[in-house]
Each structure stands twice: as structure tokens, then as C-alpha cells.
Specification:
- The protein is an all-beta fold and 103 residues long.
- It contains no helices and nine strands.
- The strands form two sheets. It has a five-stranded antiparallel beta sheet with strand order 1-2-3-4-7, with no helix packed on it. A four-stranded mixed beta sheet has the order 5-6-9-8, with no helix packed on it.
- A hairpin with a 7-residue loop joins β2 and β3.
- It starts with 7 loop residues before the first strand and ends with a strand.
Length: 103
């Protein structure tokens, strides 16, 4: 029973910044009946291991829309969704020195 309520996180894609020093990592999270499925993203330095427990997310939306990521520079990234998310749980505007713009 120790697995009851445990969430499953599946890495979908990683999008490298122009220099390759940072990645936007997109994951799907499924927790069964305990909470709705979601799509989340984090920014991780290249060479660091992504971990859903220790890497904070900067966005989280209900369901599994396709996530479109486009780095404008090392310090700016654009995020879009196809289709648009039905519910947004988290939508940070910055992660460290990276500005995040949503479309």
C-alpha cells in the first residue's frame, strides 16, 4: 500500500537555450485518483540531473497540451500551449535570471 497515491512523472521533452547551458524540461505528472493529470516544466542547468522532487516547476497546467518552447536568448523564453490549457495551476514570470513569457 505504500504506492497508494504515488505520482508518476514522465519526461516528455527538453528544450536547450541558445548556448545549451540551460534546459526547459517538460514533464507529464499523473497521480491517479488523488489529483488531475498535469503538464509541468522546470529550468535545469545543463549537466544537472532533473528530479521532480528537487527541481521546482515554473508552470503547471491541467491535462496534457502540447508545449511549445522558444528561447529568445539565454535570459528569455517563450512558452505556448496547443490547445490552450483548460486550467492553470502555476505560471511564474521568472526563474532566476530567466524571464518567461506566455503566449
Amino acid at each position: 500500500m505504500h504506492q497508494f497515491g504515488a505520482c508518476r512523472v514522465v519526461r516528455q521533452r527538453a528544450f536547450a537555450s541558445p548556448s545549451g547551458s540551460q534546459l526547459v524540461v517538460v514533464v507529464w505528472k499523473s497521480c491517479g485518483a488523488t489529483e488531475p493529470d498535469s503538464t509541468q516544466a522546470s529550468i535545469v542547468a545543463r549537466g544537472r540531473t532533473f528530479s521532480p522532487e528537487s527541481t521546482p516547476t515554473f508552470f503547471s497546467v491541467r491535462g496534457h497540451p502540447e508545449v511549445v518552447v522558444a528561447w529568445s536568448s539565454e535570459r528569455a523564453v517563450r512558452i505556448g500551449f496547443i490547445p490552450g490549457p483548460e486550467q492553470v495551476y502555476k505560471r511564474d514570470q521568472r526563474v532566476g535570471d530567466v524571464a518567461i513569457y506566455y503566449e
